[in-house]
């Protein structure tokens, strides 16, 4: 009888130890839920974008959960979204200290070579960012003004003025993409821009691999 009582006591103490240890070591996570398994909140995020109000996804959760940070799941990945000036300050001042760069799996497979896919470090990110800064120098920006002015006029004359009602979000995306193709890749013909757009539309999709024999 004493043996069984001792076993029950040891088992109870062990369970209590693991329960309290788990509570003490559980990290404090931002509020909100992650949604459906695998899909998470991706469908709602995409629906808000297609409706022309992409900011609705963030604004609704910031008002309901926390104005500073909330957690969610997009494209199969758990993530936290920072809101407001305090979030921007943390991200830009704490790079490589509190936060690290991250890319969608579908984008990483295209941007990086297979042999370096699992070994992306901060030096690679800084190198790519230095290339981007070359396009943002004051001398380059002066050249961009005339191009942007001309393309804006053409865009308004073609996609806005002939219509009494327009959807701003898809037209803004089309204009921004065409402008980036012209400035960064010197691609000016609309047919070529549309071809590139078709190939880049699925960069933000759920990652997956199809193998053909």
TrEMBL record:
One GO biological process term: sterol metabolic process
- The answer to whether keyword RNA-binding applies is no
Q: Which UniProt keywords apply?
A: Iron, Metal-binding, Signal
| Molecular function terms from GO | heme binding; iron ion binding; monooxygenase activity; oxidoreductase activity, acting on paired donors, with incorporation or reduction of molecular oxygen
* Signal peptide from the UniProt entry: 1-21
UniProt-listed PANTHER family:
BETA-AMYRIN 28-OXIDASE-LIKE, CYTOCHROME P450 26
Similarity comment text for this entry: Belongs to the cytochrome P450 family.
Q: Tell me the protein's name.
A: Beta-amyrin 28-monooxygenase-like
What species does this protein belong to?
A: Rhodamnia argentea
């Amino acid at each position: 009888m004493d043996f069984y009582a001792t076993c029950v006591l040891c088992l109870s103490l062990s369970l209590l130890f693991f329960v309290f240890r788990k509570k003490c070591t559980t990290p404090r996570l931002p509020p909100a839920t992650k949604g459906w398994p695998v899909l998470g909140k991706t469908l709602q995020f995409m629906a808000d974008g297609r409706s022309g109000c992409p900011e609705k996804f963030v604004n609704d959760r910031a008002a309901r959960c926390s104005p500073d940070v909330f957690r969610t799941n997009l494209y199969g990945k758990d993530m936290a979204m920072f809101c407001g000036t305090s979030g921007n300050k943390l991200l830009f001042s704490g790079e490589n200290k509190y936060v690290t760069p991250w890319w969608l799996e579908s984008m990483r497979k295209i941007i990086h070579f297979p042999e370096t896919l699992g070994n992306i470090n901060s030096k690679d990110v800084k190198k790519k960012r230095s290339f981007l800064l070359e396009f943002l120098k004051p001398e380059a920006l002066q050249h961009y003004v005339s191009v942007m002015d001309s393309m804006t006029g053409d865009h308004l004359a073609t996609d806005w003025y002939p219509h009494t009602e327009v959807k701003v979000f898809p037209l803004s995306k089309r204009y921004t993409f065409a402008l980036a193709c012209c400035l960064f890749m010197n691609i000016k013909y609309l047919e070529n821009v549309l071809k590139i757009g078709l190939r880049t539309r699925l960069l933000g999709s759920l990652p997956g691999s199809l193998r053909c024999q």
